[in-house]
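Minutes, methods subgroup
Present: GH (chair), OT, SY

1. OT presented the first of two proteins processed in the latest run. Sequence and structure tokens recorded below as shown on screen.
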Amino acid sequence: MTTTQNNRVLGKPVADKIMAEAGERAAQIIKQTGIAPCLATVLVGEDPSSHTYIRMKHNRCKQAGIESRHFHLDDSTTTEQLVAKITELGADELVHGILLQHPVPDQVDERAAFEVIPVSKDVDGVTYGSFARMWFDESGGFPSCTPAGIIGLLDACEVSLKGKRAVVIGRSPILGKPMAGLLLARHATVTICHSRTEDLPSVVREADLVVAAVGIPNFVKGDWLKPGCVVMDAGYNPGNVGDVDFESCAPVASLITPVPGGVGPMTLAVLMNQTTLAAAAQLNLSGI
């Protein structure tokens, strides 16, 4: 498996391996129980990007042998109606993973909807319970998919994190904050920054690992970087542009993820893998 091209870290080979493992696990679950792992997706409204992301997720389900169900609610859906639908899916023993597509319309309390997803079915890692388990390095939940995918890429490239300085730029609840927790669990020394951090370049310049997840195109510049550092670009902005100015950063970094083709493929692969793990746990199957 070739994970790098020059110093570019390619996500697809690693994601393909994870997808193959998820497919093997799904096949074993079906063989032993006659029940296919099932991911239920819920989409509220007509956001075109959200529809695209949902199609991609269902295509990956088909590829891995995972059953998928989709529930599309209209723009006028209330918090109460969304919570009722997710509660119904949470009680369905044939649904093993639940994903609420972000964003939801303004009148919906997204956090209230997330919190009725049972932790055992929170394969997207968005609930308080999942975050707490991840942060305290305890079993029983799943990490957010993109941060887990970044850890998978670092492992595939044999990047040692123990004792290294890591800077995470971004503090979102499903990317920056869980990323910091996963890095801490690997014994990295972690600094969480954001767009308002004073003298951000000087902070970034201390890092052996930079994870860019701030949501601003081409935000991180090459002259911010410590020579030889590793750069993981988790940004995805209009025009297939990441949060890292690739042209100036690539010559400085020892390893760097391109956008597209770097972190992106890992997110869906992790989602599929976590769905099969959730199914195995709910069906009391061990060792698969």
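2. SY then presented the second protein from the same run.
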Amino acid sequence: MTFPERPVLVFWETTRSCPLACVHCRASAVTERSPAELSTDEAERLWEEIVGFGRPYPTVVLTGGDPLARPDLSELLRSARDRDLNLAVSPAVSSRLTPAVLSEWKRLGVSAISLSLDGATPRTHDAIRGVPGTWATTMQRAREAVAAGLRVQVNTTVMRQNVEELPLFPRQLAAVGVNVWELFFLVPTGRAASIGALSVAEHEAVAQFVYEVSRYPRIVRTVRTVEGPFVRRVLAERRAGLPRTTSELGRKLSDRLARELGPPEGPSQLSPTGTLDGDGILFVGYDGRVTPGGLAPYPLGSVRSDSLPSLYRGHPVLEQIRARRFHGPCGRCPYRRVCGGSRARALAIGTNVLGSDPACLFGQLGVPDLVDAAAPTLAGDTHAESADGGR
């Protein structure tokens, strides 16, 4: 499944201003707003560009920094609603985010919000976020957002500081009414460039863990990954009964998840297809620059000078991404149609957005022949992608 005509999601980095100091911040956010940000009028024109994709319109995700740093946010939400755009907001959890704000967003047509939770304990999360008390506030805001009638998604960036806590998250999220969990596989960009990445084997262990979590739909209805598309290869392997690589971390995560949640409830609920940076995903920076994704800062153009639909549909790099014309193991992999590798990690580590994903096990093993056995499984799979786009 590819998305040649329109993306599923358009992310707009409303600002880079943010009151938090997260150690892994993609945007290297600062406290002050930049004069280079899109103005209110330019943001209105961005809505028109997104409408220009035609129906069904892409979902617009307002991210940052912290969108609440913009005094015109309510005005922009209202004008987007008037254009019948589907809206989601990814705010920073700070004193700006109040129950009154959440209720107003619901009235203004926001359908969902995403909150970041990077530790299953206050100590871990607050250390990563750089502000004491953020863990407790995040859990409280999640409850309040659910009560306001918003769909709530929790985002967790997987890193060495929190990876062993992952099995503790599902029950915590369920306790506050959250049943959508998105795991971000760390890409060394922005402040995250200084954080030690997981090894290839550890990335594989987390992908296998995601598969296991997806077998508990009553606790976590939807689990997805960002910059970890190889989880779809794991799904195909597990469905085909192929042997899987195990590691110490993998066994530890699996055993702890079983202790926390008991035996699996049924088959995996993972989507076998999904989006990829530049294929179903498009990102507009605070200054109007357009890139394949927020973690893949490959310059495509600018909304200040280019047509967004024309960039998405006709840029040669995006056409190659959608055709899966990659270099190295990703270009030869029999799973490239359903996976495609992280374009952001290929760019950040290999300096080539069309290169191979250095976190994938297949790149290390040289794409073993045994994966050909899964081809019939892939060819016969007709499940559709979720509406809000697993990556």
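Chair's summary of item 2: The first helix runs from residue 40 to 51.
Next meeting: continue with the remaining queue.
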